[in-house]
Amino acid sequence: MFILKNSSNISQVAQLRSPKFRQTGPSCTVSFWYYNYGFSVGAAEMQLLVDGLEEPTVLWRIYYNQGNQWLKAFIQLGRLPHPFQLSLDKISLGFYDGVSAIDDITFENCALPTPAISCEGPDRFWCRVTKACIDSFLVCDLVDNCGDGSDEDNCNPDLQCDFENGLCNWEQDTEDDFDWIRKQGPTPTLNTGPFKDHTLGTVRGHYLYMESSEPYVFQNRAVLVSPVFNPYVNETCIFRFHYHMFGKQIYKLSVLQRTVSNTKGQLLWYKFGDQGNRWIRQTLHINSSKPFQILIEGTIGDGFTGDIGIDDLSFLSCTLYNGNLPIISTTPPGTSVPVTLPMNNCTEEEFVCRSSGNCIQMTKKCDFRPDCSDKSDEVSCAMEMCNFEDKSLCGWYQKALEGTSETDSIHSTNIFKWGLGRGANLFPGQEKHSPSFDHTTFTEEGWYLFADSSVGKFGQIADIATPVISLTGPKCKMVFWNYMSGATVGSLQVLSKIGNITSKLWTQTGSQGAQWNRAEVFLGVRSNFQVVLRAIRGVSYMGDVAVDDITFEDCSPLLIPDRPCTVEEFTCANKYCIPKDNLCDFVNDCADNSDENHNI
Questions:
Q1: Cα(382)–Cα(526) distance, integer angstroms
Q2: Which Cys pairs are S-S linked (predicted)?
Q3: Torsions phi, psi of 414, nearest 5?
């Protein structure tokens, strides 16, 4: 069937209608091949006309010239219990010639389930009228799988939500960036989002969707929170839902489970990218030894064609918990836990060794040399070696995040900052700009430190610093391995910071290849300073900066010997002894520059 457009009349409409169908089964689809070619050939759309419903439901739509080719269209009809027709409408513009054609229309899986003579087994359900035998996992899932509605009888409404009358007992999270929107019909943006809901399959039905247009930006998230459920250890709680992810800039939909209310929770399932213009069913089996909640999190991609929809949320073999989840208490910002010191006679300018009560000069605290017998003077200091394998930051900290909870709260994940990562936690496609293995173990289970470029904006800075280092020796250097790969990698810098004054010691910009690269930064003699790792974000998310295996080598200060310097040694002005071979070598080996004095 084709339409040849060669008239100059504007906005002509041609309609092709199907026979009338009584009903369809829950898996019904229709597909066809179409041809729409010409400079001003106009738009075409498929509409659903249901008896008793005045407003048509748009099922499929294309705009204007699609090129000199046949293309296939796929439409999800689903369960339609009332008589209906399909109408293919062609809207043609004037001025130029054009040809539109349709061929090979196919209906698939549209019949109701066939009757069964018997239906035995704990995992089967026998439909009351149609006598179909269906999987028990399909019971009470807000879909009429039987064709007579018997699988949806006597269901607990507290365990279901189709959004026809609001959010039910689900809630919008208060710590996310924006809210899910309840909607009928198409979303406002072309070429993304559903045309219709999943429950009714018409323009009259409701669903939730995540709007990806401005003012929302990349990595903004909308989170929907379930009621609290009782723990399930020996049995399994089953969660069913339908999702719609259609658009070139679709990013991510995730489902998480939490047992503490002020945390993000544990990832159960996720899906990335465009999944086609259709509703897709997902089933999750949940076990928990504690009361729990389910979080549905939608994340915005790089543009406005990234709308994500959800509908028909239901639980099976689950019961609601009469109470709230616990909250992890956090130490308020600026509050520290007091330390009980042993009896001592130390002054304010001295450090008290924790086990003995001995006094040492405060300048000997955090100098890479333990002067207390219990090494307490080097606790909470920069560590000589850090590989992050114990999942700690080894004393490195981010000033902007001081006082925040160690738990991964939803709200804090939108900040461009440093954090721990590993290859096993990467999402599909992320390995193109993040390390898929660490440097220490060379496995995907190994940990590293990285600045996550999937959040933040171009040019934003993430700093992570050591505690204050009181004194270093003349040969002190920091060695580390860095990974900078991706199309839009920014910069990595190493800074020295004294008070609020910073000086740049090392810098590297742009992609360095998909590999770990060694870097060495000379520190030399310094006092009362911090080392800062600074990541500067590139123009997009495709460029994480990672570091691993950070070591401070030869950094302990020189010791004044309890003997005179030998004939092979030079006596520094501060009484240190150094080899005479180190004289006048442009290196401050004495820590007071007396070995570089031109009068030697």
A1: 14
A2: 140-155, 366-381, 565-577, 572-590
A3: -90, 10
